[in-house]
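re: ur msg from earlier - yeah i can do the C2E complex, just paste it... oh wait u already did. ok heres what im feeding in:
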Amino acid sequence: AAKGAGRNRFSYFTPALQVAALNRMRLTNDLRGALKGNQLKLYFQPIVHLQSGKVHKAEALIRWEHPQRGMVSPLEFIPLAEASGLIVDIGEWVFRESAQWVKRWRQEVHPNFQVSLNQSPLEFQRERGSYAEWLAHLQQIGVPGESIVVEITEGLLLDASANVTDKLLQLRDAGIQVALDDFGTGYSSLSYLKKFDIDYLKIDRSFTRNLAPDSSDMALSDAIIVMAHKLGLSVIAEGVETTEQRDLLAGAGCDYGQGYLFARPLPATDFDALLRQQSSVATAA
Ligand code: C2E
Ligand code: MG
Ligand code: MG
Ligand code: MG
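and the outut:
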């Protein structure tokens, strides 16, 4: 690439790579100001109990409204937050926001409402802070630990370092529940489910997408659901987009569904309005 640039002058990067690297640096820099500048927003997506059709839970999903670039996907900025260490402060903010909202929804909408939030592997394994501090905060604002579910991925359990086991115990001691996110995409080993105390299994949307009667993904989903139930876990299917997918999953005994069929992730106040609307309908029935 550096041909003609003269002797002793080498460029190891193609211009495209340089642009990408520069872009990441700029975005990381902007991210530092995003928390203070109120550019981070928490959205909520309903998790629907398939038998009753009621919204029992929600997943908190972070959004970044960048002043110049518009919405930046968490798939793009979470890795930058991890690499820069900003993930810890962002995660604390997500937790505190979630705790405030779940408090309100348990008081005003459903006494057992739960909010689940994502913890990336680096975030989960962080040295700073402990989940005992989360419990202290929850106690201070008056909500029990079981109002929060922490979503982790299979890769974490693969390591099964002492630190990971320790963090899982901290969650358990705080009464916070644990969900295994994106199940089926990683090194899914059924032994994890027995070894670690996990409450929910989230079937990845790559399985939901191709669900059809007698398909191999249907057979896999069926087997995952039966196995999870035998081990005492509840199952949440991700990426439910059609009524056919919902019905096949419900027929297979899947407990909960999440996906565009029910709703896209919504700004907190919009989600709040949706919940209240549904609960008044439910009361009227
Ligand atoms: P995830 O935890 O697996 O979250 C589910 C993703 O699927 C979300 O993408 C959601 O918007 C999307 N989704 C939901 N229903 C459907 C559907 O029916 N069809 C399709 N095609 N997609 C659907 P999103 O919000 O872009 O988040 C992407 C990932 O970013 C999340 O995947 C999670 O790993 C990460 N993430 C989001 N918020 C946070 C956060 O606060 N902290 C951390 N550490 N990670 C987060
Ligand atoms: Mg998740
Ligand atoms: Mg997921
Ligand atoms: Mg997924």
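cool cool. The pocket of magnesium ion (ligand 2) is lined by residues 59, 118, 151, 181 (CB under 6 Å). ping me if u need the other ligands too
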